[in-house]
Design a protein that fits this description.
Chain lengths: 243, 368, 376
């Protein structure tokens, strides 16, 4: 166990043939933090997340999540993490309730827990009336929020969100971030990737990946000061241009 | 015309650069012809025979020797009674059995009738019939040679097997097989080409370009015709060299008909792809709509005359049926266009209709 | 245990709610069964024959009548022109030409022997052999008949007491020589195989396409649990399809069911494991549903055509027969026919059954190994 750190990465690398997607990244995320994993499309964010969640083996380097080594203890990590992928993760031909039941069962929750948490979740999201509707019948924004809640169903220590607010209207985005704050307040560490630079301001700390490397790491305020830019967006443009 | 030439060139590059697919398209027919040519046969060359001889005597032993010497039979068991015969048949260890009765020689010596019971495993009907016929003829020959030398009334049939003197079923199946593998390759080719374009969205780009729909189709079909021609060549060569199927007619005519057939298949593939929106349905349609009918209703394996009328009627619209007819005629009978103008015309009409229909389908996509 | 149940339940819901999949499982197999069983036959009857009778004697007419009355032959044309006959043969209008020479009767009377000529269109391969066998049988039966008549008229009965051998023939298992009985048990195997392999491959490929597979890989569910949950519903579905197919076969085609259905379903249970494992293995090799469909069709095509389903294994070239031992479909086809048509018991099918068990173990192990929750 490594103290307070929910995620640690040290020289984590992933190569695909001759192409290096993730190039020796080193960073850590503290427990309860909301960590923004920023970068342009193709910068290596998704690859990094896939390694941290045990979906992809690293080429070299080390990392731990919730105290377990990703290379050797990947399966143990999975009990303690939640994941919301870029592509959609709920089954469209099942109802909301059936989806929740499925994941609850897979994570080993008892029937009672599943029932209780389902009710809680739907009440919190204001989606109780959709419980028996097919997921495909629900608007995208609601689906995203639902997927996030399902990722938290088994009360994981760390939750990974890969571009959770893509394609969603600003109001829903705001509501989504409220959910993220709630989770963080309850002690869940949140690592969220996004290419919306304005969302960076919502995070406790951020990193910016460019071409597989971490080009900047710190709190939004720190970074804006040290790079003397008015917004993270400008910082990103500067870093991207410099490459 | 230069637009068309450009399109053709692009398609050729696609083909050449996708090395793996190219190898598959060219190698697959060749591979399949070899596999299936050796597998799809109905010849009965060796029969596993069981003999039940409760009381062996000179006559039964003589007959048994004849069976052994016939070259067609493998005596797998000699049993004293018929008790375990059933089990041999059930296991497939024996395909036929010859049962003698005790006192066979003695009865014959006294001028009485001796009985020989021949059993064939008719679960596969033709094998069963052939086993019985072969065995019966061994007995008849014995009777004629040993017992009734020259005194019986004999009608002697001279049998001439026309067009396939060796009666090898591969001569029957291989020309049909050509149609089958070419059909698969054609649907493969169109499926690959069109779905690739659909997936990458380049098809839309083509459709809004100044190219007319018929040009798009022509541009797609032409290079694959060439690839198909190479396949036909390969398959015919295989048929000749590996299986020794005769080629009594004109090679040029066969190749031309082959190309015509590929044209029909490609057009059908394009039509199916153009008409369906979902990739999955297109694939299903191509496979079910071309492969299955070709396999079953073209006369490739199962003779059309044996099928009930409704199926024979459907087979008329299966392009492969006509090509199988043509291929067999040219290779085995050596017939020329004089006899084959009808099936050739049918294929040409099919090609024309399908090409027009696909062009129409593309037009609709522009409008719809 | 619980993860398996939950996931399996979800799988069943998927299948039941997807009309396309349901159609694939239920309707398509039945249609295929109906069409295939009617198309797949090598039966020959009423063989069209051209008669060239140059003798036109009572004896020659007698022979022609025997042919016409046999039920195996149909006189489709008759004339005195051998050229016309050959033309008909060339055109494919007739399958056989029966040519009786001018001095047929006189030859028989004077020399006790006379020739006839049978020209058979051998394009049809072994069917030609059968036609010949029937024709020869009719000819020698006719000769025996004439012999009996001659014997009855003979003054010296004693001289005609010759030893004769009475040859009796029996066709076991299928006295009516009905091709359906041979094909339908095999076609049932094909259906079950397609369902098992195709649906499994397609299903997992679809999850890959949609991204839900990734979501499952992130959960603590083990490889074994995931595979069990995936395969279980299709296993049951395959058996259900077999049952439906058997029902249709029995009701519509009156196929024999001579052996134990329990034994057949038992063998099917093992066979399905192999089919599903192959489907699973295919799904690990492809990215999209379309590819899954394609590869499955291609692989299944080869397996089916080389399994003795349509054409007998004994007729295949020796090396192919050896290779087909590695074809699980072959073994289940053998079992299916042995049990349904021949009434075989477990000892009779012990060998192919054991081979299937071995296959099940090997293919399942390989497929499970191949499936990985983590990309390397």
């Amino acid at each position: 166990m490594t103290g307070d750190a929910a995620i640690t990465a040290s020289e984590l690398t992933r190569r695909f043939g001759g192409f290096t997607a993730v190039d020796r990244i080193t960073f850590d995320v503290r427990a309860g933090e909301v960590f923004g994993f920023l970068g342009a499309n193709g910068a290596g964010k998704t690859t990094a997340i896939r390694m941290l969640t045990g979906l992809l083996a690293p080429s070299s380097g080390r990392a731990t999540v919730a105290g377990y080594d990703i290379a050797r203890e990947a399966e143990r990590i999975k009990r303690r993490i939640g994941y919301m992928s870029q592509r959609f993760s709920l089954y469209e031909d099942l109802t909301v309730r059936e989806n929740i039941r499925l994941y609850g069962g897979i994570y080993g929750l008892s029937d009672r827990d599943i029932r209780d948490r389902t009710a809680q979740m739907l009440a919190r999201l204001g989606l109780a009336h959709t419980a028996d509707q097919f997921v495909r019948a629900i608007p995208l924004g609601w689906r995203q929020k639902l997927a996030f809640s399902v990722a938290l169903l088994h009360e994981p220590r760390v939750v990974f969100l890969d571009e959770p607010t893509s394609g969603v209207d600003p109001i829903t985005r705001r509501q989504f971030w409220e959910l993220i704050y709630e989770a963080a307040a309850a002690g869940t560490t949140v690592l969220v990737t996004t290419h919306y630079m304005d969302e960076a301001e919502y995070c406790d700390r951020i990193s910016i990946m460019v071409g597989g490397r971490i080009a900047a790491l710190g709190t939004p305020a720190e970074l804006k000061q040290s790079f003397t830019v008015p917004s993270i967006d400008d910082l990103f443009v500067r870093l991207a241009r410099d490459t | 015309m230069s637009a068309l030439a450009g399109l053709v060139r692009k398609e050729v590059f696609h083909i050449l650069r996708d090395r793996r697919t190219l190898v598959v398209i060219v190698a697959m027919p060749i591979l399949q012809v070899i596999l299936f040519g050796y597998a799809i046969r109905t010849d009965v060359d060796r029969v596993r025979l069981a003999i039940v001889d409760p009381a062996p005597d000179p006559a039964t032993l003589a007959l048994r020797a004849r069976f052994a010497a016939a070259g067609v039979f493998d005596t797998v068991a000699v049993l004293p009674d018929a008790r375990s015969l059933e089990s041999l048949f059930r296991r497939g260890a024996a395909q036929g059995a010859v049962l003698f009765e005790p006192g066979f020689s003695e009865r014959l010596g006294r001028g009485l009738a001796g009985t020989v019971l021949i059993v064939g495993d008719a679960s596969e009907p033709n094998t069963g019939s052939i086993v019985q016929a072969y065995a019966a003829s061994v007995v008849q020959t014995y009777v004629l040679d040993e017992l009734a030398r020259g005194q019986r009334l004999q009608i002697v049939p001279t049998v001439r097997m026309r067009f396939n003197p060796t009666r090898e079923s591969s001569n029957l199946f291989v020309p049909g097989l050509m149609a089958f593998v070419l059909t698969i390759v054609s649907s493969l080719m169109t499926a690959i080409s069109l779905t690739r374009e659909k997936e990458t969205g380049t098809l839309e780009a083509l459709l809004v370009s100044p190219l007319r729909p018929w040009q798009i189709i022509a541009g797609k079909v032409a290079p694959y015709l060439v690839v198909g021609f190479i396949s036909v060549l390969g398959v015919v060569a295989e048929a000749r060299l590996v299986f020794g199927v005769p080629l009594r007619g004109s090679l040029a005519l066969l190749l031309l008909e082959g190309v015509l057939f590929i044209l029909v298949s490609l057009s059908l593939g394009i039509l199916i792809s153009a008409r369906t929106s979902s990739q999955r349905v297109a694939m299903m349609g191509a496979l079910v709509g071309t492969m299955l009918p070709t396999m079953l209703l073209s006369g490739f394996i199962f003779p059309l005359e044996s099928m009930p009328l409704p199926l024979r009627a459907i087979s008329v619209i299966v392009p492969a049926r006509w090509f199988v007819l043509v291929a067999r005629s040219i290779m085995l009978k050596g017939t020329g266009l004089a006899y084959l103008w009808q099936p050739t015309l049918v294929l040409m009409v099919m090609a024309a209709v399908l090409l027009v229909a696909s062009t129409r389908a593309f037009h609709e996509r522009l409008e719809g | 245990m619980r993860p398996i149940l939950f996931l399996a339940r979800a799988e069943v819901l998927h299948v039941v709610r997807d009309r396309a999949t349901l159609a694939q499982c239920l309707i398509v197999p039945i249609v295929q069964l109906l069409v295939l069983s009617n198309a797949a036959t090598f039966q020959i009857r009423n063989t069209p024959t051209y008669v060239v009778d140059l003798d036109r004697s009572t004896t020659s007419r007698g022979l022609v009548t025997r042919f016409a009355a046999s039920g195996h032959f149909r006189v489709a044309g008759e004339s005195a022109s051998l050229d016309r006959a050959n033309e008909a043969l060339l055109r494919g209008e007739v399958t056989m030409v029966l040519a009786i020479p001018r001095d047929f009767e006189t030859s028989l009377v004077r020399t006790s022997a006379a020739p006839v000529e049978l020209s058979v269109n051998a394009e049809k391969g072994s069917a030609a052999g059968i036609v010949q066998a029937y024709a020869s049988a009719i000819v020698s039966a006719y000769a025996a008949e004439l012999e009996t008549v001659r014997g009855a008229r003979a003054v010296d009965r004693q001289a005609f007491r010759r030893p004769i051998v009475d040859v009796r023939t029996r066709s076991w298992y299928n006295p009516a020589l009905n091709y359906r009985d041979y094909m339908v048990p095999g076609i049932l195997v094909a259906l079950v195989t397609l369902i098992g392999t195709l649906l499994t491959a397609q299903n997992i490929a679809r999850e890959k396409e949609l991204g839900t597979l990734e979501q499952l890989n992130v959960t603590p569910i083990t490889r074994g649990q995931f595979i069990a949950a995936k395969l279980l519903p299709f296993w049951v579905l395959g058996l259900v399809d077999l049952a439906i197919g058997l029902l249709v076969g029995a009701l519509v085609f009156s196929i024999p069911i001579r052996g134990s259905l329990l034994l057949l379903f038992g063998a099917a249970t093992i066979y399905l494991v192999v089919a599903l494992a192959i489907g699973l293995w295919i799904s690990t090799m492809v990215e999209t549903q379309q590819q899954a469909m394609f590869v499955t069709f291609f692989v299944m095509n080869i397996y089916l055509l080389m399994s003795g389903l349509f054409t007998p294994i004994d007729s295949m070239a020796p090396w192919v027969q050896v290779v087909s031992q590695a074809n699980p479909v072959r073994h289940f086809v053998t079992i299916s026919r042995a049990v349904l048509v021949k009434g075989a018991g477990i000892t009779d099918i012990a060998r192919p059954l054991l081979i299937l068990v071995a296959f099940a173990v090997v293919t399942l192990t390989l497929a499970v190994r191949q499936y990985s929750k983590r990309a390397a």
